[in-house]
Write a structure and sequence with these properties.
This protein is an alpha+beta fold. The protein contains 3 helices and 6 strands; from the N terminus they run E-E-H-H-E-E-E-E-H. Strands 1-2-4-5-6-3 form a 6-stranded antiparallel β-sheet.
């Protein structure tokens, strides 16, 4: 049996295909608004996985680390519907100190349905903010936006 797809990189952007299932929709066949946040989470997780960083390994370290979303602003542009083939497009913009800024879009056939600006922080298992492990920052470096002069 093959493993599920974690998507692919197109330049700095990670693209994750997502199908809308009945369970994702309300009684009219439109995606329930909270499910967009789930799609965005899948995009961020699979971005990290393909970049060589997985959540289980971060927790298994001698100095465990995890992520917590501290801000998420979602702009809904158009509705996704049952059976739609979507793409979750994710770009890690910056990693400074304990914070990472991430830009995400959900797209259907080139049309942007939703956009999210996300801020995450690295935390320890007790929920205290901590600097990300150096290996994480190194793994993400190729996909981060170039620093401004």
């Amino acid at each position: 049996m093959s493993a599920p797809s974690s998507g692919a990189f197109e330049g700095r952007e990670h693209v994750l295909p997502v199908r809308v299932y009945y369970e994702d929709t309300d009684l009219t066949g439109v995606v329930y608004h909270a499910n967009y946040a789930r799609y965005f989470e899948r995009g961020r997780s699979d971005f990290l996985r393909l970049a060589g960083v997985d959540h289980a390994s971060l927790l298994d370290r001698s100095d465990p680390a995890a992520f917590a979303v501290t801000k998420m602003a979602i702009a809904f542009r158009a509705a996704a519907r049952i059976d739609d083939a979507l793409e979750v497009r994710t770009r890690f913009e910056t990693a400074r100190g304990v914070r990472m800024l991430i830009a995400q879009r959900i797209v259907r056939a080139g049309e942007v349905l939703a956009e999210a600006d996300v801020e995450v922080v690295c935390i320890n298992p007790q929920g205290r903010v901590r600097r990300p492990p150096a290996e994480l920052v190194t793994a993400l470096a190729p996909w981060l936006a170039p620093a401004s002069p």
